[in-house]
Amino acid sequence: ASPLIGYLLVAPLQRCFASASATQRKLNKKFEGPEFEISKRFPMVINTLAVTLVFSSALPLLLPLGFIATQLFYHVDKLLLLRFYKKPPSYDAKLASGTVNLLPFVMLVHMGFAVWVYSNNETF
Hints:
By secondary structure, this protein is mainly α. It contains five helices and no strands.
């Protein structure tokens, strides 16, 4: 939510006070957005996915909530990448392949948690 607040509140105020710049280069710098911090946004998505998968056997409501959260991450990041941030550098597939390699571990933890939840007599 923090980048969205920056886009909706801070950026318009910066543009409002940018007209006092002496040169075009300074004016361009004031209108330029911040860097896209994939190191902060990507773990948020992975954390949402992992928590949803692990605890969904005990709380099935987490599946639609995780879907909604993932869709919100996608659409907010897409909007901010197109309208607010500087042009990001090219990223390779290393980050995505690392995530794919992490998913089997998350599924094992999900299965272990599901076995514990469903075998516990006090759960239901």
